[in-house]
Amino acid sequence: MALGRNGLWRSALFLVACALALASQLPQTGLVRSHAKTSDSQPGSFAGSRPAGCAEVTPAEGLQTEIDAAPAGGVICLADGVYSGPVLIEKPLTIWGSHSAIIQSMGSGSTLTVLGDQVQLLGLTVRGSGNRFDLNDSALKVNGSHVLIQGLRLEGALFGLTAEQASDVTFRGNTIDGDAQKPLGLRGDAVRLWQTRDSKIEQNRITDCRDIIIWYSSHTRVANNVIDGGRYGTHFMYSDHEEVLNNRYYRTVVGIFSMYAHAIIIRRNLIQDASQSDGMGIGVKDSDGLLVDGNRIVRDNTGIYLDASPRSAELQNVFRRNLVALNNAAIVFHAAESNTTLKDNSFRDNQIVISVEGNGDGLHAKWVGNYFEDYQGYDLNHDGFGDVPYELRSFSTELTEHYPNLAFFRGSPSMKLMEFFSKVFPYLQPKLILRDAAPRMRPLGTTGGLNGH
């Protein structure tokens, strides 16, 4: 007697129960990997040597008084010691100091504010700020052009580096330490750009802050930073023509997120251990013209998350040459995504390759020459590509779409047995959700190991 669709699902649930009973008798050989502590070195000292001919200032002289008295384009060298903030700079000026030259907040407002152009701050420490989120109280706030902030140590502040309505601002080689004891939502952002253009965030070391925020901005380069802990490693909103290059993101909730953005290049980044239940390596929402190339997306809950992207039917989002490995789900589509190309990527040791929310599929995306470790085809002409398509039909994925609570068992021996049953019993065969006409027989080479060494 033929079974209705409901009858099929009841049969499937019965088989799950049987599989769970069998799984309890099997050795547990999952994909658990230890979290090796990385040994990233601190960015080097970018302050440089003491400028020749600078005017030396000591804590006893009053820093603000000396700044006001300095000529435009002057150079001030700070002796070691503690200087009271807040400090305001409204003209071209260079201030140099060692990390032992400390500008200390008095507990309100931003500690150091730059309102002038052609300002350089090199090497010193800024400690503390006010605590008002509505005012973006920061260690250092910039509202000017041609500003270089280099080699600073920022500690104990609500927000770290903030630039608003600014241009040609460079934040390079700074160390920003947040408060790991505070909940993520109560920490301030390490770096915050608002209506800023032609700027750079480079070679900084950021630990336990909340986000790097780049909103309503354009032509920003985020390169060679190390971000350890936090919520959003880098978050774009209403921004365009941005670059994210060679960064390392560890233990963030989200590595890189693009929202209502255009023409973002995301290349050669490592995004590792975004492993919380809502964690993801790269997230894209309502964004188009993206190139995501050569990244390593490793040990995250979701490797790549796509939602309503690209926005424009005339534009493409391209994901190519990425290593997506050891994730719970390699890629998640919130819906069937057209104008998305996935080419030459390597999908390895993920619990599932693809999940599509909303009962959709991944057939609207263009899959070209990707490597799938479970591909069982052949290559008779030895061109490196399979002669038969890779087609994915995942019973466990379809089952969890209908019964989300079963996602708890994803990757478990019970679900692996369910996949086996779906192949043995044809009436349980799930729908096709992914097709790559010519998959790679071997993965492309990647640079570095999974821990970024």
Describe this structure in words.
- The chain has 453 residues and is mostly beta strands.
- Helix 1 (5-23) packs across helix 4.
- Strand 1 (55-57), helix 2 (63-69) and strand 2 (74-78) form a beta-alpha-beta unit.
- The strands form four sheets. The protein has a 14-stranded parallel β-sheet, with helices on one face. It has a 13-stranded parallel β-sheet with strand order 3-6-9-12-15-18-21-24-27-30-33-36-39, with no helix packed on it. Strands 4-7-10-13-16-19-22-25-28-31-34-37 form a twelve-stranded parallel β-sheet.
- It is built from four helices and 41 strands.
- It is elongated.
- The longest helix has 19 residues, at 5-23.
* Count of individual helical segments: 4
Tell me about the biggest sheet?
Answer: 14 strands, parallel
Fraction of residues in β-strands:
35-45%
Rounded to the nearest angstrom, the radius of gyration is: 26 Å
Helix content: 10-25%
The whole-number mean of residue pLDDT values reads 86
Low-confidence stretches: 16-44, 447-453
Shape: elongated
Distance between the termini: 59 Å
Computed structural class: mainly beta
Q: What strand line-up does the widest sheet have?
A: 1-2-5-8-11-14-17-20-23-26-29-32-35-38
> How many beta-strand segments?
41
